[in-house]
Amino acid sequence: MEPPDIDKELGMMCYLTNDFSSGYLRRRLSDFLVDEVLDGITASSAMRNGFDGKGGYFLYVIAKTMPVDFLRLKSVVSSLLGIRVDKIGFAGMKDKRSISFQFATSEVRGRSFCKGDGITIRLVGKYDKFLAPGIGSGNKFIIGIRETCPEKAVNLAKLASRGFLNFYGYQRFGYKRPFNHEIGRMILQRRFKDALEALAERGFKVTPESDYIRSLRSVGVGILRILVQSYQSFLFNKLLSKRALDKLNPMEGDLVLGRDGWVRRYDGRQEGTLLIPVPGAYTKVKNPYMDKLLKEMLKEDNISLDDFLIKEIPECSSLGSLRPGISIAKDLKVFVFGKTVFMSFFLNSGSYATVFVREIVKPRDPEMCGF
User: Fold this and answer.
1) Residue 350 pLDDT > 90, yes or no?
2) Which CATH fold topology does 29-141 show?
3) What positions does the domain TRUD occupy (predicted)?
């Protein structure tokens, strides 16, 4: 089945299955619930019962019951706790249009309980690490698909739960031009004036300066970093799509993630999940086929791997990483109510629930369908 144009523009050029259920997400905010998991404990449970941990960091749970994006959430949390935003650690971003429970840490003790702007925060215990992306176990989701074909939705959910393409999801890029990754591409190409104009078009407040770098910095380094990371996500999606359309099984020279958690070079014997590069300055690809694909993509955009070392804005530089090409939805449970299907499942940190549900619904207009 052919994906819609917006999927292709974000690098998601295929599916693993052919059938589709149709349907809509987020007809109500309560149709999309995210509950972060840390050391086997959900954030919602920790908010009720506390967290029995040790360490030098204060551990909080943040409950969000209104649509708030991550940058705004960080600002509100900082203000409510009375702690500088750079002193608060998060394991990852949660979907803007969801009810979510997530953990946060700080070296400094803020208020034990506070609320405002649809956000409630409670101090639940201590933790031994400053939270950062990748530290949490993952997230538990409860998602409702309305106006769907229940039989197809249930069958496809069971099938996709065993393995779906681990794309970066729509929320990583935005839905309207200029997409996040397009502005990130401009930054990497050192087209700073174009990037400023695109940010202004998107509604960002840009301080006019003759010095384009200073003007970009006025937007906020955190936002600029997200834009560059979005371009990396776009490259990853394209690489994964091309592998899925050709040969998804590991090939000689690929890196694979074994069941024991170790990363190994595939030589035809190991079992494991194919790892796809998230390209950056230190990315090295030993598989000649993958190396050729990546070089062609970068050449098409007039970018080299060295360009990911951004001397003009060093904080936005990226060395690159690896990401599994396939993800699984664990502990899947499905409930049918007429033409509405609710499902609960767990995804490892970094995987997108909307990408899992995309494999089921295959929306023709993702934005209209609530993705």
Assistant:
1) yes
2) Pseudouridine synthase (3.30.2350)
3) 163-328
